[in-house]
Design a protein that fits this description.
By secondary structure, the protein is of the alpha/beta class. The chain has 5 helices and 7 strands, in the order αβαββββαβαβα. Helix content is about 35%, strand content about 20%. It has a 5-stranded parallel beta sheet with strand order 2-1-5-6-7, sandwiched between helices. Strands 3-4 form a two-stranded antiparallel ribbon.
């Protein structure tokens, strides 16, 4: 069966209902795509939670966690900036913490991560930029 992302309307609903977005692989370097995307999400009113085992302290004013399992509060969307081969482990962790959505950024796909997450009831989005989708579907917030 060929993977298909949810409809635009479904993605819009997911974004409108999202509270916390864990950003796996969020860099503390301001010139990195992960940083720019997370900053844009934050500027649009989302709460981002940085996940990066190599960074201590804060990124974008939010405490950095080493793993998804270390986050002490619910996560709605797990947004992933990791190589495709690393995403099945992220999918397992997303299932473990009870996330609602596994979102693999543009250029990232994994049938295995999709199988793990979707079998556990998570909505899976692959090869899409969450910032772009948010801009198209929701736009500026007042």
């Amino acid at each position: 069966m060929t993977f298909q992302n949810p409809s635009r309307e479904e993605v819009k609903q997911l974004l409108e209902n999202a509270g916390n977005i864990a950003v796996v692989g969020l860099s503390d370097k301001t010139d990195r795509t992960s940083y720019m995307v997370a900053q844009a999400l934050q500027n649009n009113g989302y709460r981002i939670i940085p996940v990066n085992p190599t960074v201590k302290g804060e990124i974008l004013g939010e405490k950095v966690y080493s793993s998804l399992q270390d986050i002490p509060e619910p996560v709605d969307i797990v947004n992933v900036f990791r190589r495709s081969e690393q995403t099945p482990e992220v999918a397992k962790a997303a299932v473990e913490i009870g996330a609602n959505v596994l979102w693999l950024q543009q250029g990232i796909t994994s049938d295995e991560a999709n199988d793990i997450a979707s079998k556990a009831g998570l909505t899976v989005i692959m090869d899409r930029c969450i910032k772009v989708e948010d801009s198209i579907l929701i736009g500026k917030r007042s």
